[in-house]
Each structure stands twice: as C-alpha cells, then as structure tokens.
Amino acid sequence: MSKKKLPGHYLFQKKQHEEFIEAVEALGKIVKKQGPLDAKTAHLIQLAAAIAIHSEGAVHSHVRRALESGATPEEIYHAIILLTNTIGFPTVSAAVSWAQDVLSRE
Asked: What region holds the Carboxymuconolactone decarboxylase-like domain (predicted)?
C-alpha cells in the first residue's frame, strides 16, 4: 500500500515504534505466503474479521486493500452482507457505511 493512503495514526505509530510496526508488517507478509489463498480472498477474510471486531479503521484498510487486490465493490458488499446471520444486521449496517467511506472516494 502506498504511503499516501496510510492513515495518520498509523504513520505516527510507525514513527514512534518503527521496529515494532516493521515486525507486524513482516508477520502479515509471511502469513499471507504460508497458504494457498490469493490476496483478494485474504483481504476479504480480513475485512470480515475487522467487521466482527467493530474496527472501522481496519474495515477502511481492508476495503482499500481488497480493491487493490482486484475485488470489485460488489464483491466487497457481498462479503459484508454474508455476515448478517453471524454478527447481526446492526454491525453489518455499520460496516456497509464504513465501506462506503472508501468506495465513494474510488
């Protein structure tokens, strides 16, 4: 992901705790290489997890990353609404609005 898209709070953490953030980033890269899932699928799974923990920032991040990995807005919205029976309509509705934050800028 390009630096210009990184949120300010993330850049702040990276500046304050450079080695820690580098380790977190390296772990993410290594884990993605360990299995057969493609990047798009991985980001859609991570998007679902971000929604489940109510992390608006992570939802924004994984919507952007899913798009960069080739996901369409329709696939992203489908991934979100698939969660309705598992995590509930109010959480899914919030996630749709967070996804729209990013998708409306694309």
From this structure: 19-101
For 55, phi then psi, to 5°, come to -100, 95
What span, in angstroms and rounded, lies between the C-alpha atoms of 57 and 7?
9
Single-letter amino acid code for the residue at 26 = A
- State the Rg of the chain over Cα: 14
Q: How far apart are CA 87 and CA 18, in angstroms?
A: 35
Asked whether 23 and 49 are in contact (CB, 8 A), the reply is no
Are the C-beta atoms of 46 and 75 separated by less than 8 Å?
A: no
Q: Cα separation of 33 and 43, whole Å?
A: 13
Residue ranges of domains in the chain, CATH in brackets:
7-36 (no CATH), 37-106 (1.20.1290.10)
Q: What is the pLDDT of residues 39-97, one digit of tens each?
A: 999 999 999 999 999 999 999 999 999 999 999 999 999 999 999 999 999 999 999 99
